[in-house]
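User: We ran a pulldown and think these components assemble together. Before we commit to crystallization trials, I'd like a predicted model of the whole complex to look at. Sequences follow.
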Amino acid sequence: MMDYKAATLNIGRHTFALYAMSGMLVLLIIASLAVGAVAISPVEVLALFGNKMGLVETVDATQSIVLFDIRLPRVLFTVCIGMALGMSGAALQGLFRNPLVEPGIIGVSSGAAFGAVVVIIFIGGIAPTLIDTLSSWLLPLFAFGGALVATFFTLKIGNYEGRTKVTYVILAGVAVSAFASAIIGLSIFYADDQQLRTFTFWTLGDLSVATWDKLYILFPIIGLSCVGLIKLAGPLNAMALGESEAFHSGVSVERVKLIIILLSALVVGTSVAFAGIIGFIGLVVPHIVRVGLSPDHELVLPASAIGGAALLLAADILARTIVTPAELPIGVVTAAIGTPFFIYLLINSKKKRLI
Amino acid sequence: MTLETKGISKYIGKKSILNDCSIKIKPGCFTAVVGPNGAGKTTLLKSLSGEDKPSTGKIVMNYKPLDDYQGKELAINRAILPQQTIVNFPFTVEQVIEIGRYPHNTSRTENEAIIQEVMRQTALERFSGRIYQTLSGGEKQRVQMARVMAQLHHETDLTKYLLLDEPTSSLDLAQQHALLSIAKDLCGSNIGVLAVLHDLNLALQYADEILFLKLGQTVAYGKSEEVVTEETIEDTFSYPVTLLENQGRKIIVPKYFKENFSAKTKQIAYEHSN
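Assistant: Here's a predicted model for the assembly, 629 residues in total across the polymer chains.
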């Protein structure tokens, strides 16, 4: 067995882990800004930022446009979505006391997919011109609406005598997802080839839709929700013992459950609405943090946010470079990296009896 | 100062689970609750912990109605040790105990010192840094005991209460006594202990007062030496017993066994269980 002594009393160690991960994230951000069709070296990236701040005088105008209008919004967009998926996954796994839960369990993703299908197939079918002009906003709006409706039903069905019953919530999530899938299937049945292609790509995730406008919406929602979730680290640790035990320890269990489900639905709903369904980040990252560093939620929550952002950025770099000038769907890359790693972790933690 | 129920009853639908039950947990006193399955023991404990509200009757803790306490305020003055606690994440022993510090606003350094202290009191030093999931049932229960001790660890003039819910049901002989002795020791000047126990002999050895419950009704309640009689036990458990005395200690054994464990005993047991 490893020496867990250092992990037990956890000041210092956490700060170090978080700083190390943040440093890694910054390096990945610079790498991601440097990679692409127009060559910009990491040094030039720094110079361009220096120029914006008035420190460096002469820079290449094309590089500047590419960096600040295309790559930077995309990188920040990716960071936000990675954080949202990582942290909501960590919070929901903690709430459901199950390391194999992913954010989609409360029906959010299927609900969003349902909203997307409505826009792509029905509205797109009736008014193709409308979809062209409004596509970048109509799709996220409907997807977000679908996510909210699905979460609402999941919570409503999961409610028993005024209390949110976790088992019912999971079953309700399964039911809501199944129903949404049925309608999605039906819609696909009526879709033409082009619509089918658009929808399929949406379900694999797409980060190329990033713009500054979208970031202005995405950033505050995800930023504030993440701060809210981090504050629940203490209650989440107590919940690991069970709901009764958490109540006995002084946690307002019902309030905590509701806040976690709503905030997670909000961040996942927003992410899925803008970038489509990106799997595995919310499942794998919290698990890696828990087994690799510590299961203390004071670490798991922020570290999953940083790790989620880092993993998604790395996946995005691969997605953009493997088949240049084309781009692989991001969901394909996250699943391709995530699955083998996840299997490795499962086997490893089975050996150590950690699950 | 006490934690007491004043004639509480609990109904689920029309079914009465607990009927007009009054009990008083006092500082320095170890109270045991015994009774057959379905007697309402767990319901009583859940009501006392504030987790479940009785249908009628009042519960008062340190002169104040239990309903008037907020989550953390309640948690610093009463703690519950469950039958067993499963943790699905690889928390270390210290991290599990630290959860007991949740309702307190003490610094991390203070918490660490308290964790060390309760680990010493429960003889858990050699499990320092171990993953909770890898411990045996008895060791896990001792860690939980340390956690509830950490939860009650603070200076106060108020009486604190420790409620144990069948804490020994999955433990072997030595572990049962180890755990109950810790509880008995805790039961000092300003802590009152209540334990739901299945084993009557354990109750006899540790409890100062005993409450006998049957089908939600109080059969007997009072000082151990006064209430423990063959009749009370037979009434409560619907099973004939003999009370033996050995070196001043009472021991309960079934009335009929081995040589005369006949069809008659089986018949009695069968009739009473219906």
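Chain B has a mean pLDDT of 91. That may be worth checking against your pulldown data before setting up trials.

User: Thanks, that helps.
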